[in-house]
Amino acid sequence: MRLSAVFVVLLPTAAAFAPAASSIRDGASSLLLRASPPAEAATPAKEGEATPSGRNDEFVVGVLGDLHIDPRKMEDYAVGRAHFEAIFAQAKSDGKGVAIVSLGDLGESKNCGHNPESDSELFAGTTKCHEMAADFLGSFGVPYEVIGGNHDLEGLDEFETDTENLEVMLRLHKKETPQFCREVADKTLLVGLGSTVFREAVFTSHEVTIDQKQIDWFENLVITHPASEGWKIFVFTHAPPNGSGLRVLQENHVVNGCCWLNHSNEKQCKKFIELVREHRCIKAWFSGHFHLGQDYQDSITFPTIDPKDGPYPNRGSCVFAQTSVMRAGTSRDGRQQSRLIRGNKDGFEICTVDHQKDGKVRLDATITFKGDTNEVGVYAHEDESYDHDKYFKVYQPNAGDKLHPPDDGFRRYNTDGIIEPFDIEVDTVAWWYMSCGRALGMLNGNLIEYDSSTLAPLGLVVGADELVGKKIGVINSGLDADTCSIMFDEEGMEGADCASLAGDLREQAVVLLDKKTNVVTVVQPNEDGSYWRKIVRNKMVRMKEVRRVKAAKLWAAEVRGLEDESEVKVVSSWGPYTTTSGTAKKTSVPGLTAPSAL
């Protein structure tokens, strides 16, 4: 059992079985109809076959979180499948549409003894991994769909490129594209978007990246299947979109820039919630990625709340739901659970299939449609937590609205246009907007940037290792004419427009003051204006860096005649980077920045 620190982000609370399923692939406006295979051959169905008539509005869908199949540890998968077989048998007997959706991350990201020729090859993303996953998903007796997660193209030793890896994944799962669309009931679509980047990631390889072609396809689909015509769309992605409001997160996903879909691409990251807000045909969105349980109300968010409970969430007509895992060894909080959706023309239920309780089905939330463009959700139970759960109660800003003021952590500027310096401790609660519109705030002693629209955490700006025990403030940095002219006498500053800079009264600086040494640190924004530090590069880059370090040790040991290479100390030199680490929890630079009080 793997237990690790978890963020619970406290947000402003905002009839006849259809034997066929339609598939919408390359164009949202054209339907490629496909008949579902018989139960005993439950593989993704072939394209281009006629769709029998008679579909009704009732459906049952199983949703599987991160499988991370390990061929040495298949017991939990067999047990989990048995739990669903009984559910699907009853649904088919009742004449309901059925399907199962896997949210990706199909294989374990470690060597599983699967390749006798290599004791280091990772199982995830390999041909053998996708063959096993296809066999497993095809054994449930119902049609299945699958999308790519952040580990599904990790077959680094077998494939040179993401394109090659993706082609094999699609072929083995009998998919034509990374995305899918299946009509499981009358005007009810199951839609999936898959990650297509690993080796070519600009930053961390574990960011879930939906390529622009899929985004365009998805936008066209929701435009051409409007709520006004009765369409209902259930979306499935590996990671949730920014703005989902899900409040059970993990620290490593937040600080490393892989929490939300397309996390490091500001425009694309916002696009998904913008589509949700605009197109009320999107009724629900299911995701995995965090390996955390479903026993908390925080794992489901509703599109509307009672005004007395807080500001309007602005999440269209969409419910967002997090999905846990099936195998014990992949759980980060000890839970083994999957999702179950039961729906009809009036609404749907979100349930948990608990694999630790003999497949017990528990109702978690009931969502009732109010016309075509609205829905109301009700939780079915309070949080069910275990004694061993260890959570950080993570502060997330609440900007308020016309009926509600901002929360108590909101820092206002004084009459001089500055935020007075204040002490930072691990439990400090504070946030503010910069004049440029960026939102910054404190989270467990870290300075974090938040999305200016959704106020979802984006990433680490200054780590607690550098910040705790210091003062932080925001000051004006606009220059008067005299200071400007003196400054621009410096070499390399010739020709700058002093007049325009001197008049920019809202130019600002975030400053940290070390009370012991009086050293002041200016937190400079990135070139694109953002503040959160994109510290972790993709895995291929870091693997090469580690190999260079290893080679340097061996070389130095040989040159110096040392018997033990551990006697050699290697120091790496980067551009903006400071470490080969795949985790960005610290921002301090030894010998450069002053340490915190931690």
Shape field: globular
CATH topology of the largest domain: Transcription Regulator spoIIAA
What's the helix count?
10
Q: Give the neighbour order of strands across the main sheet.
A: 3-2-7-8-9-11-13-12
- Total individual domains: 2
CATH superfamily of the largest domain: GpdQ, beta-strand dimerisation domain
The SS-based structural class is alpha+beta
**What is the second-level CATH architecture of the largest domain?**
2-Layer Sandwich
**On the 0-100 scale, what is the average pLDDT?**
83
**Which sheet architecture does the biggest sheet show?**
8 strands, mixed
Task: Please give the CATH class of the largest domain.
Answer: Alpha Beta
Give the N-to-C terminal Cα separation.
Answer: 29 Å
| Fraction in beta strands | 15-25%
The share of residues in helices is 10-25%
DSSP summary, beta strand count: 26
Radius of gyration: 26 Å
Pick out the low-confidence regions. 1-54, 493-505
Secondary-structure topology with pairs:
Blueprint: E1 6-10, E2 20-23, E3 32-35, E4 59-64, H1 75-93, E5 97-102, H2 127-137, E6 144-146, H3 162-172, E7 180-185, E8 188-192, H4 212-224, E9 232-236, E10 248-250, H5 251-255, H6 266-278, E11 282-287, E12 300-301, E13 319-322, E14 337-344, E15 347-354, E16 360-370, E17 374-379, E18 391-395, E19 419-423, E20 431-433, E21 439-443, E22 446-450, E23 457-462, H7 464-467, E24 471-476, H8 481-487, H9 498-502, E25 508-513, E26 520-523, H10 539-560
Parallel strand pairs: 1-18, 4-5, 5-6, 8-9, 9-11, 11-13
Antiparallel strand pairs: 1-10, 2-3, 2-7, 4-14, 7-8, 12-13, 14-15, 15-16, 16-17, 19-24, 20-21, 21-22, 22-23, 24-25, 25-26
